[in-house]
Amino acid sequence: MKQEINIAIDFMGGDDNASFVLHGLRLTYEKYPESRFQLFGDEDLIRSKIKNFPDLQNISDIIHCETFVRMDEKPSLSIKRGRGTSSIWKAIDSVKNGKSDIIISAGNTGALMAMSTLILKTMSEIQRPAIAAIWPTINGETIVLDVGATIGSNTKQLVDFSILGASMAQSIFDLDQPRVSLLNIGEEEMKGLDEIKKAHDILKSGSYFFNYQGFVEGNLIGKGVSDVIVTDGFTGNVALKTAEGTAAQISTYFKDAIDRSLTAKLGYLFAKSAFQTLKDKMNPSRLNGGVFLGLNGIVIKSHGKTDPTGFSSAIDLGIDMHKSSLILKIQKNVNELNKELNFD
Amino acid sequence: MKQEINIAIDFMGGDDNASFVLHGLRLTYEKYPESRFQLFGDEDLIRSKIKNFPDLQNISDIIHCETFVRMDEKPSLSIKRGRGTSSIWKAIDSVKNGKSDIIISAGNTGALMAMSTLILKTMSEIQRPAIAAIWPTINGETIVLDVGATIGSNTKQLVDFSILGASMAQSIFDLDQPRVSLLNIGEEEMKGLDEIKKAHDILKSGSYFFNYQGFVEGNLIGKGVSDVIVTDGFTGNVALKTAEGTAAQISTYFKDAIDRSLTAKLGYLFAKSAFQTLKDKMNPSRLNGGVFLGLNGIVIKSHGKTDPTGFSSAIDLGIDMHKSSLILKIQKNVNELNKELNFD
């Protein structure tokens, strides 16, 4: 029997009454029978829903929480209202107390980040936590960070993000020397912001556990030229959202093109299985799940609007990272590098 | 007979020996017979090429230039080497002297911007020029600026860009009250950089010639929710390149899906005309051509890698703007607004 993995679930987060949660947990349980779930939320609500999932009932604890954080609540207010009582807070706290190995929420991102930072604390030598996204590329996947935790990053933070992202790439892509790049607006060294240029100078001057490759521009993210792409949270968030928007835009064009004529519809039927592959590749499910890096614990943010597969894949990612001892790996990498690095 | 429009062409810019230039000019001439071209570059080269275009020979002047700017040259070096002698410099100078109405180059963007700013000067009350891109959306087109001239913009510059972009939208989309939005990472007012928040406060507090709509996130650009989307040049460049990269990535998926089976190929044949429409929509030709705004003259940058249609559409855009007296319109809008605005 494999060692149990304890997973804290914020049951109250997400749109559409989080109807995807239990179906998602079942998918994860089928894949990882060693899963055990701690469900944080309104006890009556959880009991009324879980009774249709007898397999999950046996492996889940329900922890009643008096409050929950609204999706649109400001983080400062959510902490005032939900400190010690809300489902997000208590779920994170169970990681802090060692009762859970990872925590997943489809709730309010800002509140999840603020509470995670308060409870779990930032790792020593790391200035600010980051949100890492897994970006599908034509060759596989790339980790892009930060996609929204920081606004405007200094040089030290960009170097921190390189270490965090490269450690994650080692874990989930199983790579020895991940390739790391900095997002910039020109490949020439002359361009870009001062803090990015300085981070570039630091990263290229040393020999680290990752392979620093220099600058990349936004058009290369989807080409899979690097395993990790580092940027500040403002730029990363705009890039991620713009890519999502462009994919949605092209889907609309595609549907319009198919609907235009009978022959086009007929052609679509012939090519349907091929287009299913295309649709799967454009499916953001695997991208679902921002990972909070730089904290003393594994925190995963699932999209608020997701489906069982998306929610389950976010959990699976957390399980992957737990099994590969990501937190220990990061702390070791951070400690080793910070001895060598010098930020003035 | 319509009034002649004089168009200065940097003959030496662009990849692939600028083979698209004369074919592009012919397309523009067919559409606008009032076009007259000033061709700046190596006289022998131009003569050897234009002899195959007798229709263009009659309406073109050739202005010999001793030097030209390389595509990868640093702007500072290009000014040192090419001041007064290079094809870009002399072409811009012809706008300054009133001999040309607009200037188009497919050459080095940084050099074109640096020389344009030196020669034509920034408009009074405008701090920095911007590069505006025309972004295809599911409803039509949106102007996005700045996409690369500035790195990190202050509040005044973001408000300037709103005025510049809205004036351009009035001209090329023929709108009375264009909708203007600021690109940000959350729709809530709490998020974003300080300078963006301050620009937001200024824009929403007054009543201007455009309709300020607040913040938009990256995923909404392609939905056509606004006529003008304003951001700093770093973020705008990353967003534009990321959108291009995502479109290219999906094209690759699409080709792979079609190539996977015989039935898929057959289906593709049936639906071919529909997919042609799709391909046309994803064609960046119409997006080709960044417009430099905020200078005392119309300067258009064409992509270095373009084709005759793309080059011609960049010129056509310049003709549109000239015919609608864009520069006068901008200066009027800028003067009126700057009386009302107060930047501390």
From TrEMBL, chains A, B:
Q: What is its EC number?
A: 2.3.1.274
> Record keywords: Membrane included?
no
Q: Please state the pathway this protein functions in, per its UniProt record.
A: Lipid metabolism; phospholipid metabolism
Q: Reply yes or no: does the keyword Lipid biosynthesis apply.
A: yes
Instruction: Give me the Gene Ontology terms describing cellular component.
Output: cytoplasm
Top class in the EC scheme: transferase
InterPro entries given in the database record: FA_synthesis, Phospholipid_synth_PlsX-like
Where in or outside the cell it occurs: the entry states: Cytoplasm
Question: What Gene3D superfamilies is this protein classified in?
Answer: Isopropylmalate Dehydrogenase
| Gene Ontology process terms (BP) | fatty acid biosynthetic process; phospholipid biosynthetic process
Family stated for the protein in its record: Belongs to the PlsX family.
Q: What is this protein called?
A: Phosphate acyltransferase
Native species: PS1 clade bacterium
Q: What is the lineage of its organism?
A: Bacteria, Pseudomonadati, Pseudomonadota, Alphaproteobacteria, PS1 clade
